[in-house]
Amino acid sequence: MPIAVMDYTTYNMISLSAPEIRGLWKFALVPGLERVDENGNTYIDRSVAASGASCIMLQKSTKKEKAWEFMKWWTSTETQSRYAVEIESIIGTASRYPSANMEVMYLQPWSAEEARILNEQRYWAKGIPEVPGGYFTTRHMENAFKRVVNDVYDARETLLDYLDDINAELTNKRKEMGLTYNERFSKD
Question: How far apart are CA 85 and CA 10, in angstroms?
């Protein structure tokens, strides 16, 4: 039985692009691990990494008031909802807009069951703290994966090689920003 752990935008895309399997599959909560809380109660931990996008205003902007007004307009429920409806009406359900505005998320045409699952899974979404140079970790983990799969390199050795590059970049960024760092990872 095939299973995929993907974000819900993939569900939207498959729903539109594979109508021949409509009704034969659905999305569900992410499989989890049984855990025991501090009171001895068991539960299923369905934690997933959260991601998102954001609006920013640069400190040196010469049009901060206009930028702020635009940001308030763009992120409002009314604008986001209208955008979501318009894009889906033109392109279809594959383009259902993953708004960070939760009101907009639930104004979209989800079935009652889909909305319930999305809401419950949202509880398990955990943000991953960013660190200076953290982009390097993601980039090099992907590079290592591709090198092992595509070029048939040894997985352990490849990860160790990339780990050196990752640690060097993290150390450099911490130094650059005047942050403390663990000396044992420093190459200097």
Answer: 18
For residue 97, which of 127, 123, 75, 126 has the smallest C-alpha distance? 75
Q: What element of type H or E holds 104? A: helix 102-107
Q: What is the mean pLDDT of residues 137-144?
A: 90
Q: At residue 183, does pLDDT exceed 70?
A: no
Owner of token pair 């911490």? 174
Q: How far apart are CA 121 and CA 36, in angstroms?
A: 19
d(CA 166, CA 168): 5
pLDDT in tens, 73-92: 999 999 999 999 999 899 88
- Give the length of the chain: 188
Give the closest residue to 9 by CA, choosing from 87, 88, 93, 81.
93
Nearest to 27 by CA among 6, 43, 57, 49: 6
Calpha distance 83→112 (Å, rounded):
22
Residue type (1 letter), 30: V
